[in-house]
Each structure stands twice: as C-alpha cells, then as structure tokens.
Amino acid sequence: MTPTPHLSFGLLLTAAAGFADVVGFIELGGHFVSFMSGNTTQLGDALLQSNWTAIILPASLIALFFIGSTLGALAAIAAGPRWAAATTTAIVLASLAMTVVLAAFGAPPDQFMLMLAAGAGAQNAILPSTGSVRLGITFVTGTLFAAGQDLARAMRGLAPPWRWAQHLLVWASLLVGAIVGGLAYSFVGIYALLLPAALYLAFLIAFVVEPPSSVAL
Description:
The chain has helices spanning about 5-25, 35-50, 50-105, 110-125, 140-155, 165-190, 195-210. It is an all-alpha fold. The chain has a single domain (about 5-210), classed as Growth Hormone, Chain: A (Up-down Bundle), CATH 1.20.1250.
C-alpha cells in the first residue's frame, strides 16, 4: 500500500493535471495535452483519410508530450534525488507560464497548447514510485487497469484488500480536477491555468524545502 501522506500529495498533482487537461481539451476542440492514446487514434484517422491539415495537431501534441517526458526524466536524473522533484516541477510550471503568455499575446491554441503538452509529459517524472500506485501522473488508463487487476487479486487473497481503491482515488482526482478546471474555464477562459500554476508553485516551494520522500501533507 502507498503511504497516505504520499498518496495525498500525488492526488493533488494529478488533480492539477486534470484541471490543465480539460482546459487544453476545450481550447483544442477535442484534442488532448496528456491523453496520447486519444491523440494517436485521431492521428491514425487523419492519416487514413490523408487529411494533412488534421494530421499536424495530434502529431505535434504527441511529439511535444514525448519531448517533455524526455526532458523531465533527464532533468530528474541530472538534478539527483534531492532536487529531482523541484527541477521537474519547475519545468511544468514554466510550461504553464509560457502557455498563458503565448495566449495573452494572441497565439492560436494549436501553438500555445503545445507548451502545455510538454509540461504534461514532464510532470510524470515529478514523484518517485512509492508502493504500487503511480502518483502525480497525467493519464489514468493504466491506473484503471491496475485497479481492476488489484481488485481481482484481492478477491483471491493475493493483494492487500483495499489497494485497488488507491488506484481509483488517482482516477477520481483527475476527474475532480477536470470538473473544477471546466468550471474555472467557463469564467475566465485560458487564464484558469493560473490556478494550477499557483498550485505547482506551492509544490515547487515544498520540494525545495523538503524532498518528496519526506514531504508530509
């Protein structure tokens, strides 16, 4: 089982990701900044139809997510265990800031949302693995599978009886973040991203003061 304090911290990060993802989904008219399975399906459909205009956006989002994931992992490795989380969080915060700034200067969504996709990729490297639950992630397809797998194993006495529920909490945190993000977007549009930016700034300060392994919330 993942320790409760660490789980709570990861749930906040995942909720922030859900918030940013729904803002991106609305701005991009049905594309995603962190759900690359959906973008890949859309890319495949565009390729099948030889719709070269429709190919550019999902391909770009996938590429930037991949680049962000690579940069996040490289930054975490280079920074070392003590500063890995802070460094990676700074990358995510910078991606949010660049997204809002580009939007404020009139860049189209299919350009400024690429920065958010890169940040979504980098976020998955923020928290080290603790227990069996992946924390702070920006996508939950595998998490739902893990919940079902752990429930089946628990029914046979092969896994802790409630570990599957921790996986579902990660899924629920993404959902709650998406709901809050959608509500915030309806009031202030793209500037709703300032809310998760403030949360990531708080994460960054916490990571500077204490490494993730000892942060207690």
